[in-house]
Amino acid sequence: MSPPAIIAPSILSADFAALGQACSDTIDQGASWLHIDIMDGHFVPNMTFGAPVVTKIRPHVKRPSTAHGVGTFDCHMMIAEPKKWVKDFQKAGCDLYCFHYEAAISSTAAENPADHSESRTSPKDMIRYVHEQKMLAGIAIKPDTPVDVLWDILDNQTQEEVPDMVLIMTVHPGFGGQKFMASELSKVATLRQRYPNLNIEVDGGLSEATVDQAADAGANVIVAGSAVFGARDPADVIAKLRDAVEKRR
User: What does the DSSP 8-state code read for residue 66?
Assistant: First the structure.
């Protein structure tokens, strides 16, 4: 049996004028986590917000009492220098720091935003570092990245360097509202076959119309933005997304 369903609405689609209340309401409506998209205008062409906004919304949502629990802030770091921001987001209230594989293989080992380093980081180094900061670690891949780059990371015998979640992007990262890329679900299916207990997240174009495909492939963590925040009855949508995953476990 695969891990339980986790529904993580993306607050990028929430009302920014009342973001704290929107976050609180979404958890009350049945969401498991909140997916928080961080974009820097470098790794992706768009920009969103940084750690100060996370700090402000954290008091509106109770911290999870257990790892992966309700209220988890799932921060999706679409940024060019992911190691520089780990400490800031830990202080802000992040529970799961999900960086991109593509950034981790091309960025520095600097540990603070103002720092410079000639040393390079790596996916395994990033995972260990996030764990050292007492957060869960996730690793994401873009549609153009083959899933087999993750085998060496997931098969690692050093547990501190193994991620707690893998995120498969089902759109090109950077903007909300894109069309769901069903072509990426073969990556999910391969991951689920190899790692039956792994939390596998899908992000991009998820809704009631596409969640069945994602759940059939083996995804258990569902990110949905406009499908939840734009719904007349968000609680009903969250329940339907959860049911789609649970009945396929």
Answer: S
Euclidean distance between CA atoms 62 and 146, whole angstroms: 37
Q: What is the pLDDT of residues 108-154, one digit of tens each?
A: 999 999 999 999 999 999 999 999 999 999 999 999 999 999 999 99
Length of the chain: 249
- In this structure, the dihedral spanned by the alpha carbons of residues 228, 246, 95 and 204, taken in order and rounded to 10 degrees, is -50
For tokens 């629990």, what's the residue? 69
As annotated, the active-site residues are 37, 203
CA 219 to chain centre: 13
Instruction: Please state the pTM of the whole predicted model.
Output: 0.97
Cα–Cα distances (Å) from 131 to 21, 60, 139, 190, in that order, read: 30, 25, 13, 26
- Residue 104 in contact with residue 82, Cβ under 8 Å? yes
Neighbours of 10 (CB within 10 A): 23
Give CA separation, 128 vs 110, 134, 170, 172, 245, in Å.
Answer: 14, 10, 26, 27, 30
Closest Cα partner for 227 from 239, 215, 217? Answer: 239
